[in-house]
């Protein structure tokens, strides 16, 4: 396409299949396991209504005026204190507020990657991350996710020993899309590899606080003694994605460069939204709020798994996440999740086909992602039943 009006960077970029599936949600009859949104049932709407009203009454000028790029200072301090308490960052480190966690991926790619630079991504990975690296013309190298996280033997033997890698993109906890958590051993080894082969790690952790069973695993950033990790977090899944508030911490020079780039992207994250988030987390019990969300997601996760155990054919295997919003289902190779998806939509059930979560989207994949956070219980039961029939129809 020599005559394309579009830049080299964006010419081959197409809207994600997940976004395309959003259109299907308009059909009220479709039971969608395709989204990735938190449940509106846990949005603290009443509390936020009062907070927003009070902000306009008491801090209207602040809320409506330009703010500083780094973020609203009290919110930055809150996030920093929380991360320090959680052991993620040290007292000496800074936090920057961003417009969602997605912006951290974009800024990180912008400041670190030249066209053609190698970026290791998990296979499967988050479509927003993959599309971001695509938009910078980075060369993505997929590395499989095993039940305990990224395949680091493969990473070292087949990737790091052969090519120079600039960045590893890791969603180490309750991964989107697989729900898998990388174990502590692997986290330590990934850090050791980063040091040995001189690359950075983008630890993208929007789901880390959504644990409903099992024991916490230390973040990669918390064990990072050599400043290799750019740590990204978000309020999207713990408070509200519509507020568009994320944050990051990174070594000083990278952080400062990302701030400069944020300046030219959106100047700053909307002050009103930052004030709303800050007032909620300080005037209400944020931990209790997260706990309520976890209880809800834990129940929905258990219900979906129970239905799958009862209704899916035994050749289907799937993850049993201890947190987050997704689980990942693998079928024998002869299945094509794109065809399953088409048939599923005909029968009024939707999910995300595996290809959307892969570097090579044109390849056939038998796996798919299911989201359970945003579907009523009766529809989880009904939808999994329909999906089981759809799978069986391809036997
Ligand atoms: C792994 C991962 N990273 C980042 C994001 C971006 O979230 P937000 O920009 O809403 O904070 C998402 C959202 O689904 C995600 O799954």
Short description:
With 395 residues, this protein is an alpha/beta fold. The protein has helices at residues 17-24, 45-64, 73-85, 100-112, 127-135, 152-160, 184-197, 252-266, 271-283, 286-311, 337-346, 377-392; strands spanning 31-32, 96-98, 118-123, 139-146, 149-150, 165-170, 200-204, 229-234, 246-249, 317-318, 326-330, 349-350, 352-353, 368-371. The model has no long low-confidence stretch (mean pLDDT 95).
Please name the defining characteristics of this protein.
Aspartate Aminotransferase, domain 1; 12 helices; 2 domains; Aspartate Aminotransferase, domain 2; four-stranded antiparallel beta sheet; binds pyridoxal-5'-phosphate; alpha/beta; 395 residues
The helix fraction, in percent, is 40-55%
Q: CATH-wise, what's the superfamily of the largest domain?
A: Type I PLP-dependent aspartate aminotransferase-like (Major domain)
Oligomer: single chain
Distinct helical segment count: 12
CATH class of the largest domain: Alpha Beta
Q: What gyration radius follows from the Cα positions, in whole Å?
A: 21 Å
CATH architectural group of the largest domain = 3-Layer(aba) Sandwich
Q: Beta-strand level of the residues, as a percent range?
A: 5-15%
User: What does the main sheet amount to?
Assistant: 8 strands, mixed
Distance between the termini: 40 Å
Shape: globular
Identify the strand order in the major beta sheet: 2-9-8-7-6-3-4-5
Are any ligands bound, and if so which?
pyridoxal-5'-phosphate
Overall mean pLDDT: 95
CATH topology of the largest domain: Aspartate Aminotransferase, domain 2
SSE string: HEHHEHEHEEHEHEEEHHHEEHEEEH
When the domains are counted, the total is 2
Structural class: alpha/beta
Give the low-pLDDT segments: none
Q: Quick one: how many beta strands?
A: 14
């Amino acid at each position: 396409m020599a005559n394309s009006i579009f830049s080299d960077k964006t010419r081959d970029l197409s809207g994600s299949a997940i976004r395309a599936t959003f259109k299907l949600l308009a059909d009220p009859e479709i039971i969608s396991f395709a989204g990735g949104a938190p449940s509106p049932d846990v949005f603290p709407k009443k509390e936020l209504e009062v907070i927003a009203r009070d902000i306009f009454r008491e801090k209207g000028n602040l809320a409506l005026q330009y703010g500083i790029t780094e973020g609203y200072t009290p919110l930055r301090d809150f996030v920093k204190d929380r991360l320090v308490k959680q052991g993620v960052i040290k007292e000496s480190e800074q936090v920057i507020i961003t417009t969602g966690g997605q912006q951290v991926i974009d800024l990180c790619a912008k400041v670190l990657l030249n066209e053609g630079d190698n970026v290791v991504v998990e296979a499967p990975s988050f479509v927003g991350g993959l599309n971001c690296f695509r938009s910078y013309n980075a060369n993505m190298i997929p590395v499989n996710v095993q039940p305990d996280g990224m395949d680091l033997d493969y990473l070292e033997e087949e990737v790091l020993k052969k090519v120079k890698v600039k960045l590893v993109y890791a969603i180490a906890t309750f991964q989107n899309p697989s729900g898998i958590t990388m174990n502590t051993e692997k986290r330590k080894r990934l850090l050791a590899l980063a040091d040995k082969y001189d690359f950075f790690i983008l630890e993208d952790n929007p789901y880390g606080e959504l644990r409903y069973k099992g024991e916490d695993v230390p973040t990669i950033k918390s064990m990072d003694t050599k400043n290799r990790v750019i740590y990204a977090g978000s309020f999207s899944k713990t408070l509200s994605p519509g507020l568009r508030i994320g944050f990051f911490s990174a070594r000083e020079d990278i952080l400062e460069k990302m701030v400069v780039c944020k300046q030219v992207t959106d100047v700053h994250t909307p002050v009103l939204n930052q004030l709303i988030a800050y007032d909620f987390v300080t005037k209400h019990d944020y931990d209790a709020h997260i706990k309520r969300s976890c209880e809800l997601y834990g129940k929905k996760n258990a219900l979906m798994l129970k239905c799958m155990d009862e209704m899916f054919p035994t050749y289907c295997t799937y993850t049993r996440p201890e947190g987050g919003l997704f689980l990942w289902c693998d079928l024998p190779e002869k299945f094509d999740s794109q065809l399953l998806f088409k048939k599923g939509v005909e029968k009024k059930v939707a999910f995300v086909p595996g290809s959307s979560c892969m570097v090579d989207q044109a390849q056939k994949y038998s796996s798919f992602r299911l989201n359970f956070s945003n579907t009523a219980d009766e529809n989880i039961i009904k939808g999994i039943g329909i999906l089981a029939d759809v799978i069986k129809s391809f036997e």
